[in-house]
Amino acid sequence: MSRHSETLVLRIYVNGTKAEHRVAAESVRELLEYNFPERFDLQVIDIMTDPDALEEDDVLATPTLVRREPDPRTKIVGDFSDEATVLRVVHPAFGKVDANAIP
Fold it and tell me: Cβ-count burial of 27 within 10 angstroms (0-12 exposed, 13-18 middle, 19+ buried)?
């Protein structure tokens, strides 16, 4: 399987009581659906209902997006409005080209 066709396994940690975190999670999901249709698995972890999950990925702040697979594990914390940065974290190949030019 080529690196470009691997399933991306991601988690986004949010504080479910904060509207901006829910919006961030939805924005990430839409970005993934557009760029990696049917090639990603995104878990949204609400730290208010599952605080123990924070330890699994060494999360210290929210919102945090973690790419768990493929290795290496990477993460981005905070505002996800810079789509190019999010895409580089999610899939390193996006760092080599203009993310806006990739369908």
Answer: middle
pLDDT value at residue 94: 67
- With the C-alpha atoms ordered 35, 37, 39, 45, is the resulting torsion angle positive or negative? positive
Residues forming beta bridges with residue 10, ordered by sequence position:
42, 67
Do the Cβ atoms of 45 and 53 come closer than 8 Å? yes
Q: In CATH terms, is domain 3-95 a member of 3.40.30.10?
A: yes
Q: Are strands 64-69 and 74-77 parallel, antiparallel or unpaired?
A: antiparallel
Q: What is the mean pLDDT of each run of 10 residues along the chain (103 residues)?
A: 69 93 93 93 96 93 94 90 90 59 42
